[in-house]
Amino acid sequence: MDVVVLTKFLAPFLPFLMNVGNKVFDGAVAKAGEDAWDKAKAVWAKLQPKVQTKPAALEAAADVAKAPDDEDLQVALRVQLKKLLEQDELLAQEIARIMQENAQGNSGDKVVQNVTGENNQTLGSVQGSKVVRDVSGNVTM
What we know:
Layout: H1 3-10, H2 14-17, H3 25-32, H4 34-53, H5 55-66, H6 71-87, H7 89-100
Helix pairs in contact: 1-6, 3-4, 4-7, 5-6
């Protein structure tokens, strides 16, 4: 579990996650998207009980909630989250699973490339689909 990524991901949501019942969470959804908000809530639901048992972790989370862009405060939270996850391997695995959800998703997204000129490069690697190379002339797919 990459604690740096976890901390960076959670930081903008902590003001909303730590103030349950606050209507401001609508702003988080609008700002980051519903999928990211749902993921943040799922991660926090797993982390919060552990964070609340450790005063230093709770204080670090509260500090980041007050100033989510402060890199120094994020470092303090990252240290506390690292300790918690090192002590609880199952928790680390559960959070890693949640963080991976939808990370590889979007496989149903449509990608459109408009390439003009001669010998231009198109997509180099596509999984789960056909790759068309060396196309000349007008092609509709």
